[in-house]
Every structure is written in structure tokens, then in C-alpha cells.
Design goal:
Layout lengths: L3 E4 L1 H10 L4 E6 L6 H12 L3 E3 L3 H5 L8 E5 L7 H9 L5 E5 L5 H13 L4 E5 L8 H6 L9 E4 L2 H10 L3 E5 L5 E2 L9 E5 L8 H6 L2 E4 L11 H23 L1
Parallel strand pairs: 2-3, 5-6, 5-10, 6-7, 8-10, 8-11, 9-11
Antiparallel strand pairs: 1-4, 2-4
């Protein structure tokens, strides 16, 4: 049976709360205390999970930012695109995040964390040439990965075409796009597409987008980091939808 180690208070606590993984063993350092540790121990006890207190070398040898907490868990399990759409339809309008070959676990985790906070219904990313959904991603997401539906798909363009049939419009982030996110109506069923950290959107993915949008900025730098650009856009979707809801109310 495959398993992996999650390190850090947030990933372990959120894995316990989400209940999506099988948690085999909880590891707690005797030298660490506090409310967070007590909460994690209580959650483990409720679920009948065994607790071990290994020496400090166990943590240091595997993760520098371990915070004295780890758990042996089953690998993260992605969901199907169809189930994601079905679940998202219950919280209409649909709202998804597409990651086009985001390779860096830190960027991937940061985008997933923002997506969860901004009300995104699911994250879609290619099965290949993308960051694996590893413990590093869960840690970078502060445990948000444990709650977020993520679909790993074979062909991103084909998946975009399927989502278009469900009424979703695609907005690709491009620093050179003529229209900014501020002047684009993002209140309908939408998917934000974030490209690779260095190359941006692939040409076929770019062509499949309904509109390319940019983020206004000043200063000498040419563009924002992928995770920051994605965060700004996701929150612009959230802002517009909240404003639209207030106006209708």
C-alpha cells in the first residue's frame, strides 16, 4: 500500500479535518507543545489513529519545517472532471482554476490555497509536465490541498472543450493582453487559466481561451509571479460576483 509523509501543523491538521486520506500514523515530537498540537492529538484520538513520538532525527532528516508534527498518509487522490462539474453546479455559477504546466510545488500550493479561499470549485491540471500533488504542495498550500477537489487530466484542451459545453468561459492570463481583469465581466461561469512560470500559456491552450486578460501594474518589472497573478484574478472574480449579488439583492 502506497503512503507518504505529511510534515507540518497545517497539512496534518487539515488532512485530519478533511478526512479524504487514510491516516496510518501520527508523529508528534515530545519537545513541541501548544494548542495546535493538542488539537491534532484530539483529532487523532477521535479517529483511532496511532500516535508515535520519534526522536528529533526523524523530523530533521526529512523536512526542515516540520514543526514537530508529521503523519503517514495515503497519497492525495484526485477527482474526475465530471464529478467536479457536478459538485460545482450546486454552487453556480461554475468557477474553476486551470493550471497549464505549473511545475513549481510552491506556486502550485499557493494557487490552490488562494483558490480555496476565493471560492473556486476545483483545480484542473495536466497529468504530465505539472507539479505532482506531493506533501510539498500540501505544505505550500497550508493544508488547502486537503480540501480542494483537483482533477489531473490527460489533455487540457479537450477538457476545456468539455467545460465549454457546460457553459464555462475561459480567461487566460497574459501580461500583454489588451483587456484587463478589471474591465472584464467575470460574473458568469468562469475558468481562470494560469500558464507555466517561464513560458506562459501553451499556444493550443491560449487559442482555446475565450479571452486573454492582463493585470494592470506599474513599475519596471514586466509581469507578476504566476501564483500572484492567479491570486489577483481569482479575487477579482470573487469581488465581481459579490458586487453583482448585492446589486441583485
Amino acid at each position: 500500500m502506497k503512503s507518504e509523509n505529511l510534515f507540518g501543523i497545517h497539512p496534518v491538521r487539515e488532512a485530519l479535518l478533511a478526512g479524504r486520506r487514510t491516516i496510518h500514523t501520527l508523529y508528534i515530537s515530545e519537545s513541541r507543545g501548544g494548542e495546535a498540537k493538542d488539537e491534532i492529538l484530539a483529532l487523532a484520538q477521535e479517529r483511532g489513529i496511532g500516535v508515535q513520538t520519534p526522536d528529533a532525527g526523524f523530523f530533521r532528516s526529512q523536512d526542515r519545517g516540520h514543526q514537530g508534527v508529521a503523519a503517514r498518509v495515503s497519497p492525495f487522490k484526485p477527482v474526475s472532471l465530471e464529478s467536479m462539474v457536478k459538485a460545482g453546479a450546486e454552487k453556480a455559477p461554475l468557477f474553476f482554476l486551470l493550471l497549464d504546466e505549473i511545475n513549481d510545488p510552491q506556486n502550485c500550493g499557493a494557487l490552490i490555497r488562494t483558490a480555496l479561499c476565493a471560492g473556486v470549485g476545483g483545480v484542473i491540471m495536466p497529468d504530465k509536465r505539472s507539479s505532482p500533488l506531493s506533501p510539498a504542495v500540501s505544505k505550500a498550500s497550508a493544508g488547502a490541498l486537503e480540501h480542494m477537489p483537483v482533477a489531473r487530466i490527460v489533455n487540457l484542451v479537450r477538457s476545456m472543450q468539455y467545460l465549454k459545453d457546460q457553459g464555462v468561459w475561459f480567461y487566460g492570463l497574459d501580461a500583454s493582453a489588451a483587456h484587463s481583469v478589471w474591465e472584464t465581466d467575470l460574473t458568469g461561469p468562469a475558468a481562470i487559466v494560469v500558464g507555466n512560470e517561464g513560458k506562459g500559456l501553451r499556444s493550443l491552450v491560449r487559442k482555446e481561451c475565450d479571452q486573454l486578460v492582463s493585470i494592470p501594474q506599474s513599475g519596471p518589472l514586466g509581469s507578476l509571479n504566476a501564483s500572484v497573478a492567479g491570486a489577483v484574478t481569482m479575487y477579482e472574480v470573487m469581488r465581481q460576483r459579490n458586487m453583482s449579488g448585492k446589486q441583485k439583492g
